[in-house]
């Protein structure tokens, strides 16, 4: 008996010693830590999932209190709850804190915001008292949905201010900050009740904490835009960034340069290359830990993103000149990265597997950089190909073209969520029944997702979706600029587009941290749709309201009944002329057709001045100038005669209007407007009084 007792005593002692050796992880927080909104929270709350990930060497405690505030004067201070006392008694070796969401309540932040940082620091210090060696991970808060009932009345802005305060606390206390915001932000369906992540979201939170604690981020990884045959932007300092395990030494070498850095606690690392000389081929080598990534046949040159909807997507083999262009397309100094959608938005109903993939932003097929050959060029964007070919020929450097255009996509799908949340939140609400969004767009999306039983089913046309599935995965892959052809799916609401387009440009420039990134776009062409003249003029007017943009006119290459005119070569070359003149300083190249500058009215006629007006003439010799119209105070327009004067102005008059006050041009959906400059480039639609 004594021997058996001693054996049992030793066994119990061993178990106790092993229990004491476990690393204690205290998960401190509110209802999101507790698991509210998570089906079967006893199994799926994030601290439970974290326990499974960390394994037997850890003991994870859930000390979440629904409704708790960080603020000690808030409506339910965490420090006055039993969960706080239990967390102190637990004396965690690691303390994970996620508080602040409930402080966005109007009872709290407006009154006591100045005390937030002090209260947060005091909370951290209280855990240090019970375990001086404790390690802290404090979380940037999870997102709040724009569907939240107080979103615009203060919650959105207070949430943003609290995020900044949390970052300040992390710096002041020298503790690790983890990010519960960015990984969840592109997945609004996860916040089913607008506040609490569901079970899938809780699993994501557990993964974030696991990686933060262990530093295990899966080793060295790069954006999928890094492949063999890629083009790296030359001629300027070049930011290269990736992931590795926390603390791993990273070495990057290319073209005689060698750079070393260390992955941060969040696994992120970056180096800045000195400007590369154009040409190649180079080999890019990246090493971290036991992993090595080797990229061969890399060129240094000019990289452009080619985006928009179906007219940018329109392939070379579909274009009017495709048969003659394709055999001549062999050029190893042009490289293509062609992002094709897995599923086209045709009039079909998608099945459950497609719908699930859409929710997880898995819309584009995997691809890689390829050299330009007849085979690769034939299925690439015709406009992008001709743009790149002219750039490569003129600059005599390699050119890389990335195309991610999606047929039918509206502008709002390409704008960042953050931009719309703060500057145009109305377009996010109930988007399939939202009149800001074109009826055709909503109808096609509804047809595609008809089989979905999920309340917040996603679709490529949804606001923000393509920014999140096509831009964010680029992970700021370095580019020179953007060419853009889109607008057909926004022409129903010009005022909404005038809000969207500048924000689209700005959100992309903010993403690439380049406030002057060139952005050249195509004006809508000619088609028998009544709103298009006004839309074209709106696009023209935005040239003066957005910096460093340019517009290529395409109305002379339209089609009366087909939204996809096939003459793409000319459009691509016009975009290239803009880039060569404005971005690369080729001032001898005319960048644009005539653009309306001003109109003077005297002696019964309008005298119209244009920019880019050298050599004004009709497109075909012997023709009269067509589609000019004038109106008087009654704003009733009449067809007018027009001639080019010796001073380069265009005189416009009509015997029907004795005292004209307004002149317009090309104001037909499908227009036969024929004013060009000496370079043969067409004039834009305009109306003088807008």
Structure, explained:
- The chain is α/β, with parallel strands linked by helices.
- Among the domains are: 22-214, Rossmann fold (3-Layer(aba) Sandwich), CATH 3.40.50; 595-687, no CATH class.
- The chain contains 20 helices and 28 strands.
- The radius of gyration is 30 Å and the shape is globular.
Quick synopsis:
The chain is of the alpha/beta class and 690 residues long. 30% of the residues lie in helices and 22% in strands. Strands 6, 8, 9, 11, 12, 13, 14, 15, 16, 17 and 18 form an eleven-stranded mixed beta sheet that branches. Strands 2-1-3-4-5 form a five-stranded parallel beta sheet, sandwiched between helices.
What proportion of the residues is helical, as a percent range?
Answer: 25-40%
Biggest β-sheet description: 11 strands, mixed
The shape, in one word, is globular
CATH architectural name of the domain at 22-214: 3-Layer(aba) Sandwich
Which key phrases capture this entry?
30% helix; Rossmann fold; single chain; globular; eleven-stranded mixed β-sheet; five-stranded parallel β-sheet; alpha/beta; 690 residues
